[in-house]
Amino acid sequence: MSEVASRPRRPALPVGAVVLAAVFVASLATAQLTASKVLQFGVPFGASVPLAGDQLALPGAALAYALTFLASDCYTELYGRRAAQVLVNVAFAINFLVLALVWSTILAPAAPSSIDPAAFATVLGASTNIVAGSLLAYLVSQNYDVVVFERLREATAGDHLWLRNIASTGTSQLLDTVVFVGVAFWVFPQHLGLGPQLPTAAVVSLMVGQYLLKLLIALLDTPFVYLITGAVRRTEAPRGVAPR
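Request: output the structure for the sequence above.
Response:
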């Protein structure tokens, strides 16, 4: 018998884990590159939001970053707390790889036919305050989300997926919003002189706008959490995979 034939067959890597990890990392990288643009939307029906008025302002990364919580909640539900924390912390390290690749391209000499290097750097070169705020907010909120989701799962004996999805994501998104906006748009500009100095009212408005969008997404993504986890379980269980 050949050496190859006698070698034990390795278990196949769950496709669901690969897809969810890919969605998580892609959304995280996109959020890192889009965080510096501030978006603004009018409140529908002429309504007004306390502390924000009739216009909601939020960082451009809000939607992409919200998708990371959908992916991590599905990952935690299917593969457990330890696997999800590995995903979260490995992705944190990948943030630095993304930054290194972007800045190596910015610093490399440009050809005459290239787009304007200054414009390229302005668009893709995230400032220190944005990088610091996003990395700190990510590390705190994502690990918090995984822990709370799993503890709620244990407390409900695996029932009420909707409850742990909304509760863990809703509270972790609040934590993420306060840390990111507070660090990136208040602590660094006001105390270290890094980044644009915004009035306190504008900073609060950013927090309110970003959190309202994230909370809305947390409410709307619950059916997708059921669909994704159900599809993965139906696909992987017949092959002997026992996701949880």
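The two ends are 38 Å apart (CA to CA).
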